[in-house]
Here is the input.
Amino acid sequence: MPWCDACDRFWTVDAVAGQDDCPNCGTILARPASDEHPAAPWHFKLLMVAVLAYLGWRAIQLLAWLVGRL
Ligand SMILES: [Zn+2]
Here is the structure.
């Protein structure tokens, strides 16, 4: 999100409309060094794998329980 030091406010990407200067005062805006969508960390991916494995196992248990009740 672009930040203007002179106006002391953030601008939305739509307000800046692809230009590098502030729509209010014309100052060149400082953009964040990193990209807007950083990659997910490895421990988040590990958590997702563990959650999917757990839910898959619980689904198997549900099917076994349902078959046992028939
Ligand atoms: Zn400004």
User: Anything to note?
Assistant: Strands lie at 3-4, 9-10. The longest strand covers residues 3-4. The mean pLDDT is 86.
